[in-house]
Amino acid sequence: MTNAELKNLKDTLWLSADTLRADSGLKSSEYATPILGLIFLRFAESKYKQYEPEILAEYNKLKGTRMEREIHEFAVEKCGFYLPDEARYDYLLNLPETENIPEKVKQAMIDVETYTKDLEDTLPKDEYYAVDGKDGKAVLKKLLKAFKDIPDNTSIDIFGDIYEYFLGKFALAEGQGGGEFFTPSTVVRYMVEVLNPTEGEIFDPACGSGGMFVQTAHFIASHKAKGNELNLRAYGVEKTGATVKLAKMNLALNNIRGTITEANSYYNDPYNCFGRFDYVMANPPFNVDGIELSDVKDQPRFNTYGVPQNKSKTKKNANETVPNGNYLWINLFATSIKGKIGKAALVMANSASDAGNSEKDIRIKLIESGVISQMVTLPSNMFNTVTLPAVVL
C-alpha cells in the first residue's frame, strides 16, 4: 500500500466513522473507545488469518496423539491470541440486523481476552450497547462494514498507523481532554530521533495511549537488520484506567512487548525505576500543584538533585505541598536511566527553563552534573492541553 493509498484509506475510514457518530448520539469522548476497539478487532482478524494455516497444521499434526493440545494453545504460541469462530470480524459483519449485534461484539471481545493475558479487562464491551443510539439506526452494523474496507492482507504497521491516526483525530475532537492521552506524532518522532534508540527497556511514567513506545519501536525496526528480532520492552505508568486500555491495545496492535500499569507516578513506583532503564520518554502534565511533599521528599528518584519546596523561614506545615511538579518529573527522568549509558527525553513547560527559587537550585545541580545535554524550545499551540510554548529536554 502506497503512502497516498494509506492516507486515502485513513481519511475515508475517519469520514465514515465521524458521519455515523451523529446517528449514534454519542459525544466524541464516548465514541472513541468502541471505534478503537473495532479497529483492534479488525486487526486481530487480519493477523489471525495470516497465522491460521500454521496453527491448524500444528494442531492437526498432534491431534489424536499423546501430545495433543487444545487449538487455542497453538494459536497463542504462534499468533499471540486465539479467535474462536464467533469472535471473527467476518462472522460479526455477516450477522443479520435482527441479531443483538452489540451483545455479539461484546462477547467477541470477551473471547479475545479469555486467551490473551496481556489484554485481560482491556477491550471495550458494554460501550457497544450505546453505539446504535435510541432510534435503532444500526450504527454498529454500518461501522463493521466501514472497517471491513481495511484489506485482509494489511500489515501490522498499517493497522498501528490507522490506530494512531484515529487517536490523533479523537484527541483533536476532544480538545484539552484529548491531550491527556495523545502527544503529536511530530514531537514524539523528534524525541525518538534525538535519543537514537537501538534496543533495551524503555520507560514512560505518564504514557497516555503509548505513542512514545510505538514511535520508538518503529524507529528501531527501521534501523535494524532485516530478519532480526525487535529487542525492546516497554514499561508504562498511566493514572487513568480508560487510557491504560488504549495503551494496551496500542502495544498489541504494534506487536510491542510490554506492561502498562494503572498508577500515579508521584506516589507509586511499580517498576523500581531508579537507575534501571535504557530509555525514558514522556510528555507529563505541566505545572501540577498539590503534590504532598511528605510523599516524595524521601524518595531517591525525586530527591537526588533536590525536591522543589517553598523557601520560607517559618516552620514547615506537615501538609506542605510541592509548589510545582515540573522538577519532580525532571528528577524522575534523570534518576530512572542507567547511569551514564541511559538516555531520556521529556516535554516540559517552557517556564521550567528559567524557574527560580528551589527549582533554580535543582537546575544548577542538573547542569553541573552533566545530566542535561540539550534543550529545544517548541512553538505555542502544539498541544491540545496547553497553548503556552514547551521545551524538550
From TrEMBL:
Catalytic reaction annotation: a 2'-deoxyadenosine in DNA + S-adenosyl-L-methionine = an N(6)-methyl-2'-deoxyadenosine in DNA + S-adenosyl-L-homocysteine + H(+)
EC number: 2.1.1.72
GO BP of this protein: DNA restriction-modification system; methylation
Molecular function GO labels: DNA binding; N-methyltransferase activity; site-specific DNA-methyltransferase (adenine-specific) activity
Superkingdom per UniProt: Bacteria
Keywords in alphabetical order: Methyltransferase, Restriction system, S-adenosyl-L-methionine, Transferase
InterPro entries: D12N6_MeTrfase_N, DNA_methylase_A-5, SAM-dependent_MTases_sf, T1MK-like_N_sf, Type-I_RE_MTase_Subunit
One Pfam family named in its UniProt record: N6_Mtase
Annotated ranges, domain N6 adenine-specific DNA methyltransferase N-terminal: 9-147
Family membership: Belongs to the N(4)/N(6)-methyltransferase family.
PANTHER family: TYPE I RESTRICTION ENZYME HINDI METHYLASE SUBUNIT (PTHR42998:SF1), TYPE I RESTRICTION ENZYME HINDVIIP M PROTEIN-RELATED (PTHR42998)
Entry protein name: site-specific DNA-methyltransferase (adenine-specific)
Organism: Sporomusa ovata
